[in-house]
Amino acid sequence: MKHATYSVRRGDTVEVSAGKDRGKRGKVLRVLAKKDRVLVEGVNFAKRHTRPSQKARQGGIVEKEMPLHVSNARLVCPRCSKPTRVGQRRDAAGNASRMCKACGEAIDAG
Fold it and tell me: Which domain, by its residues, includes 48?
């Protein structure tokens, strides 16, 4: 099964467009392509009850970032700093790069 290539990549800044964390911005820590989800820094926390173990000597309730669906994370353009839809642009050599649909500038080259 072939999965879609996303307009959001690890290291990008995104803004959450839906859900309890709507409007928050954060850096993408991980892209889970097979599940269509992204893990965003400081967004979508869930409480996990853990037992004491070798890793966590102290048990208790731990807050952890959970992945959210890629459709709820909109890329923030580094040029105009607006959350935007992403287009594709090809140069003369045929290499594709991402393009901001708000300002028309290239987001990255390559």
Answer: 13-76
